[in-house]
Amino acid sequence: MRDWLPFEWIAATRFLREGRAQSLFIVAGVAIGVAVIVFMSALLSGLQMNLVRRTLSAQAHITLLPPDEVARPLRGATAAASGSAPDAAPTAGSDNAATPAGLDAAPERELALVQRPLQRVRSIDQWRKLRAQLQALPGVALATPVAAGSAFASRGDASRAVQLSGVEPETYFSVVAIPEKLVAGSARLDSQHIIIGTELANDLGVRVGDKLRISAANGNAMTLTLGGLVDLGSKQANQRNAYVLLASAQSLLKLVGGASSLELNVDDIYAADRIARDIAARSGLKADSWISTNAQFFSALKAQTISNTVIRLFVALSVAFGIASVLVVSVVQRSKEIGILRAMGASRGQVLRVFLLQGALLGFSGSVVGSAIGAGALMLWHQFARNADGTPIFALAIDPPLFISAAVLATLVGVAAATTPALRAARLDPVQAIRG
Amino acid sequence: MADVPVLRLDGVHKAFNLGQPNQIEVLHGIDLTLARGEFCALMGPSGSGKSTLLNLIGLLDRPTGGRLYINGADTTMLDDAALTQLRGRTIGFVFQYHHLIAAFSAIENVMMPSLLARGRPDAAMRARAGELLDRVGLAPQRDQAVMSLSGGQQQRVAVARALAMRPALILADEPTGNLDTKSADDVFALMREVNRSDGTTFLVVTHDPRLGARCDRTVRVVDGVLDEGAD
Fold first, then answer.
1. Where in A246-335 does DSSP place strands (E)?
2. Which of A119, A161, B12, B120 has the highest CB neighbour number within 10 Å of its CB?
3. What is the residue range of B106's domain?
4. Residue B88: its chain A contacts at CB < 8 A?
5. CATH of the domain at B62
6. B121 and A348: CB-CB below 8 Å?
7. Which segments of A234-271 does DSSP mark as H helices, in order?
8. With an 8 Å Cβ cutoff, are A346 and B84 in contact?
9. Are A244 and A303 members of one domain?
10. What are the strands, taking DSSP E only, across B17-144?
């Protein structure tokens, strides 16, 4: 009995220690529950982080595009406005619809077929200024201009359609990590060099150092040296993508000084959707976040998260019921002692707290043991679940907040579970409790 | 202060199952006054209402009629928390079965009433409990688990515990009923010694006329009515 401990702590720990077998069993039960939660959550967040990282390694978090060009039928608007005035006239004081005035006012109808205009490659208006403003926005990590359009890459008789992206290497490479995906050559981009996907190089039969002719649909053409080959992770991407310096693409695509899109990276990738909407509303540009362009992938992630939450909820429930049942039994077993304590001056509040505290202690100690088991299981899994080449499938994510939140949650669940038995203990009538 | 009785019961009634068809009155108007330093035996056949009366006096239960004064203060108007506090500070209990808390050692059990009143242990509490155990002759067993003590020793720990808060009144419900003659004599002698040296008032429920005869005064409960005097 230490002098600094309040009565409730002393009594709670003594009671738990006295009912050793019960306490150990329920701590084991809580530990298993917490271990499952910790293991599953860490695994899932590792998996998701890995999937998201793979998805985002080849695309920006937000892409800003100039708004679609739309055609508005201006004449239709004026016809509707002039047509409404005569409609009101005949009703005023006249019960005969066949008046000359009514005939004159028969509205002239016009069918307008509005054709969707062609979407040309256009530049974002004043992108330099916009870029500076975007970079100042909270949550935006980086903005980089891209001048992109279709072009042909040809060598001799072979030619392939490519998606040509003119980039600013120093910033663009932090959005799409070209240097990391390089399989041959160098990632240095200058006005003489081009970087293309591996499949495209195969199709054209070129190797690093070879010359490639790039011609745009508008007739502009340019001969560049193949500087590097990249593997972007998918065959289609590797067949289509080619990267040149921003200035080269601008002149090829006749976008002098322009950028067809601004690519943004944000600090919190899950806030991308919100930030994109915000930017779209402010700038009038089209803003696509990675979440909306990968809607299916993202909803799969969400479904995973939801099922994880549901499992957590049920594990927490079963832990709660376990703790509650042990404490209910303990209250029944100790009802005489509770009565004696009450006779000796223990208040209802003191009795209540003794049992709430037991719940909290069971939850907490179970979560400590469970976190250790969960962490151990994760390390084992990490050790044995490997790719064919022996590298781990993905990085192990053991982050302290997970364990802290597991401990806090288990403690709260313990307190909540202890509420019913504790109230029961506090309400015991000492006379009956002592009589037994 | 000396002339204010430690305990005064004024026409105390107790009925159970109030307002229900099986309502039954157990105590029919009890008047009882215990002066400071009295050592009083409470006798009576089982079912006479002794235990009910003791529970009322111990503030573990409330009378359904009449008034109950502790140290001159009316307790009938007090709420639950105030009763608990008053009970903890002015009344000590010795039960028939020692009713010690098994999870604690002898000295910790003796400290328990003070611990409940003050919230956390301190050196003074510990010293007082040590003295009390010394006084009941159990200094060597102070750190033993109470379940490892003999019946007589356990009951002596219970007496020491009842004394922890220096209560004005100690209620003993057949304190020796479960002990052999030798241990019973020891425990009774201990209570008398405390009564004499500290002036603590005792109300002792007993079936044993031999013990009753060694008390200053004997009151009997018969069919819910108090009957003063010897049998």
1. 261-266, 286-289
2. B12
3. 7-228
4. 344-346
5. 3.40.50.300
6. no
7. 235-240, 246-252
8. yes
9. no
10. 24-34, 39-43, 65-70, 73-74, 91-94
Same domain, A131 and A38: no
- Do residue A17 and residue B60 have CB atoms under 8 angstroms apart? no
Q: Scanning the structure block, which residue is given the tokens 């016809």?
A: A79
Higher pLDDT, B177 or A366: A366
* CB-CB neighbors (< 8 A) of B84 in chain A: 342, 345-348
* Cα A276 to Cα A139, A266, A296, A298, distances in angstroms: 11, 10, 18, 16
Taking an 8 Å cut-off on Cβ atoms, the answer to whether B115 and A17 are in contact is no
As given in the structure block, the two tokens for residue A140 are 């935006």
Q: What is the pLDDT of residues A93-109, one digit of tens each?
A: 444 444 455 455 667 77
B98: contact with A, CB 8 A cutoff? no
CB-facing half-sphere around the CA of A209: CA atoms within 13 A: 1
Residue spans of chain A under pLDDT 50: 79-99, 102
Contact of A432 with chain B, judged by CB distance below 8 Å, is answered with: no
- Cross-chain Cβ contact A344/B88 below 8 Å: yes
Token duo for residue A270: 């899950």
The closest CB to that of A18, out of B99, B103, B122, belongs to: B103
Check B95 against A346: CB less than 8 A apart: no
Q: Quick one: average pLDDT of B181-192?
A: 86
Count of structural domains, chain A: 2
Read off the pTM.
0.72
